[in-house]
Amino acid sequence: MTRTDRPKDQERLEAVLAHFLDAGFARREPALLQPAAVFLDRLGEDFRGRLYLVNDGGDAELCLRPEYTIPVSLDYLASPEAGKPAALAYGGAIFRIGDGQLAQAGLESFGREDREAADAEILGVALDAAKAAGAARLHVRLGDAGLVRTFLDRLGLPPAWRRRFEIGFARGTPLAKIFATPARKNGEAGAGMLAALSNVDAAGAKKLVEDMLSIAGISTVGGRSAGEIVERFLEQASLADGGSVGSEKRALIEAFFGVEGSPDAASGALRKLAKYAGLDLAFALDSFDTRSSFIAARGLSLDDMVFSTRFPHSIDYYSGFMFEAGVPGALGAPPAIGGGRYDTLLKTLGAARDIPAVGAAISIDRLSGDAA
Amino acid sequence: MSDVETLRTPRAESQDRLQDRLIVAVPSKGRLQENAFAFFARAGLELQQGRGARDYRGTIAGLDHVEAAFLSASEITARLARGEAHFGVTGEDLVREEIDDPAHRVELLAPLGFGAANVVVAVPAAWIDVRGMADLADVAGGFRARHGRGLRVATKYVNTTRRYFKEHGIADYRIVESSGATEGAPAAGAADLIVDITTTGATLKANALKTLDDGVILRSQANLVASLTAPWGDAAREAARIILSRIAAEEEARTTRELRAKLGEVGDKLLRKAETKFGATLRERGAGGLLVFAAPAHRVAPFADWLIAHGAQTVTSGRLDYVFRADNELWTRLSARLGGG
Question: Which residues span the domain enclosing B194?
């Protein structure tokens, strides 16, 4: 499959790129051949099935670039402007097994501390570029991974429940199932030890198990320290011991993840919820509203956009604002535009500190809605 | 397949050779080979290796248009997938790992009862907080935040691991490919856990590893495997039919017993009861009310008791060498998969 061969897609790609350059973004074109490890490390081993892998006899596995964000980020970090504000654009072919060669264009904005304005600019320029390439009006969905994280932080869930929730949420597991108390198996190995530990306070229990592991000569195994193992062992013990999230917190979680609507309506509902629950979400919601104002100031209609706390499902990669836009009617079809803020990515790619970053990618073949 | 392997293994079969004969790929060394030879010998199929022990080609005594190829289990799997061998003896673990879309490329005709081993997920025994895949998913979820990297899994079963971890919702991990001594990887600091094949679990124990409660990905054993992509000419089909009919004849003889009893009048109802209750089927009716049944070997005694309760005076049971059938289940299944022509 080589969709970029379609003359129409090539025309659209050029129109999108022309619009990006007009908007002040500088073109970058990273190499086609990229080290595979950098994608697998960040996108997970499961992504291996999508990579066109190449082996040139050396130690490092190479692949045809499956996306642009990571290569463009690496180029930026290797350039003299690393750490300074930069507005970059890209456009060309990406390669994924199952889809073959696809045309993709996009934007990355690095180093801007005025995050809300940068978020709005990326959304606005991406939507305008799609329009310039002849796309019909797109449905826009918004999310905020930073807001979701802040809410979970303020809620103060025990770490075990927090992870259980995040994993379940990412997999689309119903809340009732996520919060069901795990069944404790009778006669399970370790049950005796757990029973003994239930009479000791947390610090004492940790010390006791740590001592036991140290007597057995175990310090670190397979990259996990004894302390880490003990901590989780006791955590699981408290889960199994009938410890639960509590109906009040559950109700708050249900209410929070039920919020969906226009950004302004959603913000209002979340402020009410925060006040009722006594949770301090002011900073996150002020930032949310500031961003909404910047979006409106670009002439975009906020009322035509839908914000949902359930979007995105997985908040691993993104750190703040998120959006996607698709052709109306293409129900269940992957969106034509996707993007968001990922302030923590560049540090994992070798930056000395976190660098603010927000970007968008446009799948050219999905702009018309006829590709599906 | 690595470059080194390509250089060492004999040149792939040419298409011509595959057209006018049936190629049976058999393990070339060790216990797998002994067991494979014994399996074919039981069915009256004597594998004959070529002139020297290093010769990788051979024949099956008395069968024309059949060529045996003696290869490594991994090479056998690769040839079945490429359609360069018609039949092969190889482990199910290799079929599932090394063949892309195995359901469409090969047919697992029969498990052979040897080469049994499990592909398992094993973690350090010191991970007292990790008992099942759900625990592992939880640890994987929190690992990156704590260590700045994903969990590392040492294995040579890359595809099998990916499928199983996906089923259990584990995405954030990295595979460290390992071709030998995988079980030593966690102790050496090269990985956090492993996916490997084990027969008794002793090697895992020796390396202070434990299998997760639901960590058995695959219970594997040697299988007789047919390639669906090989060119199946008339000669190959006929040879395959003969081989499968002998294998099926031996298997049926080994797993069943023939029972004889005189019962007088016997209606269909009673025969149906014999079938549902004991899996016994009527082979023939003789003179004077003699009935000859075939029954599973382990049901012989209760079935004989039952026959006596229904009026038989004497019930004899015997073991046969072979039970040949005009239609045998193995060939019926294979020819259905191969289609016409």
Answer: 117-219
